[in-house]
Amino acid sequence: MITTLLKNYLKNFSQFSVEVKVLAITTFINRIGAMVVPFLSKYMMEQLHFTYGQIGWVMVFFGVGSFIGTWISGKLSDKIGFYKVMVFSLFTSGLIFILLQFLTTFYSFCFGVLLLTTVSDMYRPAMLVSLDTYATKNERTKALSLIRSSVNLGFMFGPLIGGIIITVLDYTFLFYIDGLTCILSILLFAIYVKEKKLPFKLNSFKYLKEGNSILQDKPFLIHLVVTLITGILFFQMFTTLSLYYKEVFNFTSVESGLFLALNGVLILLFELSIVSYVESKNINKLLMVSYGVLAMAVSYLFLLIEHSIFALIAMMVFMTIGIMLTFPFANSFVKNRSLKKREGKFMAAFTMSYSVAHILSTKTGMTIVTDYGYKVNWVFLTCLGFVGFLLAYRLVFIVTKESETIKKKIVNSLFTTTAK
C-alpha cells in the first residue's frame, strides 16, 4: 500500500512546473531545518528556566510577530511583488535565528522572538500568492497540498533530528542549523526561480457587490473564524501537548519528536492523494473542511484517557486527518475568493487568523493547564472544535446559496449586454 501511495505521490509531483517543484524542495529544506520551534517551550523551561507564565508570554509575542509579519507581507506582496518579500523574509530570518540563542533574559528573548516571527512570517502569504503565478488554476489546490507535503516531510525529519541533536549535542546547534537552512533554501529558490508577475485574474465574486472587500465578505469572515478555531486546536500540539508528553509520560526529546514525525509521515503518504480524489470527484471542499475540524475536535477527547500510549497515537491520527482535510481546502477557498490585485491582502488576512490563533492558543492553554490542569484544557479544546465544526458546516450552505446568486447575476448580465 505504501508503495502505491508513493507512486501516486511521485506521479502527482511530476505534473507540476519547474517553479512549483523548486518551491516544494525549497520549502522542504527550510522546514527540515526548523528544529527550534517544536522544542521552543522545552528550551525555555530547561535552558532559560522560564516559568509557565513567562513561556506563555513569549509565545504571545511569537503570535504577535506572526500577525504583524503577515499583515506587512500582504501589503508588500501587492505593491512590490511576492518574490522580493520571500527572499528578504527567509534570508533575514535565517540571520535572526542564529542570533536568537544569545538572548537569554526574559525581555530580550521576547523581543527576539517578536522580531523573528515578524520577519519569518512574511514568507507564507507571499509564497501562497506565488502559486497563482507558478501553478495553473486547476493545479493550485494540488500545488498547495504539495507544498504542505514538503512542510510535513520536513517536520517528519526535523523534530526527530532535533531531538537527537539536543540529546547528543546541545540546543545551540539547533539555532545554527535553523538559520543556515533558511538561508540555503532561499538561495536555492533565487537561483532556479525567476520573478514573474501575477497573471490576469477574472473574479466572479464581483457580481455580488461592487467594491467587494474583506470586511464586506460575510462568508470569508466566517471562514476566518473557522480558521482561527482550527489554528487554536493545531498550535496546542507544539505548546501544551509537548509539555504534556514530558510531564505526564516523561518522554525524551527524541520520543516527542517521533510523535510529531508520525503526523508528518501520515500527511506525506495520504494528503496529496486525498486532495486529488476530492478534486477529481468534485466534492464540496468546505464540507471537507467541516469534517476536518470535527476530527481535530475529537482528537483531544482521546487525551482524557490517562497514561495510554494508544490514546496518544489515536489522538495524533485523528488530528492528522483533521489537518489533511482542513488546511489545503481552507487555503483553496481563500485563493478562489480573493479579488484581482488584492490576493496578498486576502492571503494575509487568512494567515493572520492563524497568528491570532497562536496568541490565543498558547496563552489560554498555558493558563488553563496552570490553574485547572491538562484535562480541563482538553475538554475546552474539544468544545471549541465542535463550535468550529458547526460554523464550517453552516458555511457550506451559505456559499452554496451564494453561488446560485452569482450564476443568476452572471446570466442576467449577459442578457442585459445582449439587449444593449
From TrEMBL:
The chain crosses the membrane at residues 52-74, 144-167, 173-193, 220-245, 257-278, 285-303, 309-334, 346-366, 378-399. This is MFS transporter. Pfam families: MFS_1. InterPro entries: MFS, MFS_dom, MFS_trans_sf, MFS_Transporters. Keywords: Cell membrane, Membrane, Transmembrane, Transmembrane helix, Transport. It is found in: Cell membrane. SUPFAM superfamilies: MFS general substrate transporter. PANTHER family: RESISTANCE PROTEIN MDTM, PUTATIVE-RELATED-RELATED. The keyword Nuclease does not apply.
